[in-house]
Amino acid sequence: MRSKWQWLPVLLGGAWLAYHELSRRTIRPRNRRYRRAGIQVTTVPTLFIPGWGGNAWTYNGMLRWFAQQGYAAKVLTIRVDYQGHLRVTGHWPAGAANPTIQVLFDRNLTKDYRQQIRWVTQILRALKQRYGVTAYNAVAHSWGGSAMVHSLVNDGADPTLPRLHRLVLLGTPVNEAPSLTAPDPAYRNLLAGRQNLWANAGAEIHNVYGLLAGRQTDGEVPVGQATALRQVVAQSPVRYHEYPVQGVGHGQLHSTLRMWRLIARLLWSLKKDD
Predict the structure, then answer these.
(1) Between 184 and 7, residue with greater pLDDT
(2) Which strand ranges, in their side-by-side order, compose the sheet holding 86-90?
(3) DSSP collapsed to 3 states, 97-120
(4) Cα three-residue angle 251-244-60, rounded to 5 degrees
(5) What mean pLDDT is reported for the chain?
(6) Checking DSSP bridges between strand 86-90 and strand 73-80, what pairing results, if any?
(7) In CATH terms, is domain 40-268 a member of 2.60.40.60?
(8) Is the distance from CB of 101 to CB of 77 less than 8 angstroms?
(9) Exposed, middle or buried by CB within 10 Å (0-12, 13-18, 19+), for 122?
(10) Annotated domain spans of the chain
(11) Paired strand residues for 168
């Protein structure tokens, strides 16, 4: 019996390595299957940023569906490795229609999102330097959205970064204080730096959050933590909209067809209310 149990660590280790490898397999670059009518077509790239514990599976299905439905073309994967270096794969042809960029963090189980703030800013700077990107969209889930908001507020006026066009937040906590009457330090920093939003005048932020039946939460992020963003963008030149989605849990915000359709509409529809 002992000889059987001695193989258990090996089996568990092998299973973890297999999971780790499979969870990093992003979809390959792919063109739109056809040219969809009735959408905006631009060369502005859209970044897809996962939250805590997120991996390739966070957005694989969504990005595959966007290409199949004629909304967008997957062009690049940008992986931030364990040393904080950017690993870029894929091909970005000139004039690609609605190009999408999948972001992965090898260190995806961090104790907070401060490192992700730095990595997001690093990615944006690299896109401007390497590819001449001057404007971008982003879709960000959970703490990935928190990092995106902090990057925008802290570094949005940096001339080495492209300017935000549209940001879709999915279940993003902005003020995680136990009591919303006493803001947490990260939220106070957002309020103190909100003047940087003027550098991104005209940008759109679409704040999407889930509501489970009879509860003011998506199961992970209370509504109040997500809607705390209102005060940060209040009286700024950024256009801000909220989208409460009934019956959708935290993980479903990026993984269901209902949400994919909403996100596509917010990013590329000619009319946001159609």
Answers:
(1) 184
(2) 86-90, 73-80, 99-105, 46-49, 135-141, 163-170, 204-211, 239-246
(3) CCEEEEEEECCCCCCCCHHHHHHH
(4) 35
(5) 91
(6) antiparallel
(7) no
(8) yes
(9) middle
(10) 40-268
(11) 139, 206
